Amino acid sequence: MHRRGTFYAVGVGPGDPELLTRKAVVALEACPVIAAPRVSSGEMLALRIASGAVCLEGKKIIPLDFGMSKDRSVRAAGYCAAADVIGEPLEAGLDVAMVNLGDVSIYATAYYVLDELRRRGFETRMIPGVPSFCAVAAALGRSLTEPDSPLHIIPAGAADLDEALSLPGTKVLMKSGRSMPATAAVVIQAGEEEMRRAGFGAGPIDATFNVISQIVSRAPDLEQFSINAITGGTDAQGEVTVRLREGEYSATGRGSDPDIIVASAKAYIDALNRLDHKERDALRTQEATGEPAINTCN
Predict the structure, then answer these.
(1) Cα dihedral angle (211, 155, 126, 130), rounded to 10 degrees?
(2) In this structure, are residues 240 and 264 in contact, taking their beta carbons and an 8 Å threshold?
(3) Closest-CA residue to 6 (of 112, 86, 111, 105)
(4) What is the DSSP letter of 180?
(5) CB 113 within 8 A of CB 9
(6) What distances in angstroms separate CA 276 from CA 171, 216, 250, one per listed residue?
(7) In whole angstroms, what is the distance from residue 35 CA to residue 30 CA?
(8) Closest CA to 101 of 183, 6, 174, 26
């Protein structure tokens, strides 16, 4: 009886060869044929990661070219074409492993090819890998979840991002491509209270300002934004000046930091605080004298 080969979809993790699982290494060592996605530049990143953990000398390498079209039928045709190429060594009785970045169950090209091969009657196996977001959490020393909070995995290129970021718990945005605007994640400590939020903008500074405004539930107009270097050298401090207006009141804030985005956030918060103090002072003056206060821009 003719034996057909087995297809293995192998997750190689987020980039560090040391994060390949032992099972992935065993499968890659055993398979005489390795299939790998190839980008337009010719690079096969998943294969390069795998080669850092497994000796691939003497193995047949099958490059696979996939388009990045949003058209589902075009993508499906790419998976079928890959299955055609991989099917030849499988029909000859050779086992084939296809390497895939991250894990093979999370937006994984290797799984879509596996699904097509399975429909054609081939035996298939999935070998999990470390997802990129888990590796990031480990590098930061943070947990992705709490006992009572969910974890959302969202395809950023196809989702309503404002709605997605309003979901409770941790949000992981994947497959963003070039469709996702600049993002910012802000943590504000007010006494013992810690406020966290993420959002978008026309650029990283605009996104930072938008997120801070959302946290404090205020949306003043930005009248002035300027950047000045206040020290020289490679560790130069940048100073940012921000002037905000809300109704008849305006205030100027300043912030400095080697990171210009952090300096901008400090200046924006400083201006918000000054604006708040000015409005409170005006209210107290009006209550005491019955006369409106005079606004200044400082």
Answers:
(1) -20
(2) yes
(3) 86
(4) S
(5) yes
(6) 32, 11, 10
(7) 14
(8) 174
53/16 Cα distance (integer angstroms): 9
Q: Which two tokens stand for residue 159?
A: 């989702």
Please identify which residue in the block is written with the tokens 């074409």: 81
Q: What is the pLDDT of residue 281?
A: 83
Q: Do 157 and 38 form a contact (C-beta atoms < 8 A)?
A: no
Residues 49, 28: Cα–Cα separation, whole Å: 12
Angle at the Cα of 264 from the Cα atoms of 260 and 267, rounded to 5 degrees: 135
Q: What's this model's pTM, rounded to 2 decimal places?
A: 0.66
- Of the two residues 210 and 231, the one the predictor is more confident about is 210
Summarize the confidence of residues 41-62 as an average pLDDT. Answer: 95
Residue 90 to residue 257: CA distance in whole angstroms = 59
Band of the pLDDT at 82, cuts 50, 70, 90?
very high
Q: Are strands 238-246 and 249-257 parallel, antiparallel or unpaired?
A: antiparallel
Could you report how far apart the first and last alpha carbons of the chain are, in Å?
88
pLDDT at 242 over 80: yes
pLDDT of res. 1: 65
Asked if 50 and 20 touch (Cβ cutoff 8 Å), the reply is yes
When mean pLDDT is compared over 45-54, 195-204, 207-216, 226-235, the highest value belongs to 45-54
**Bridge pairing between strands 123-127 and 6-11:** parallel
**pLDDT band at residue 81 under the 50/70/90 scheme:** very high
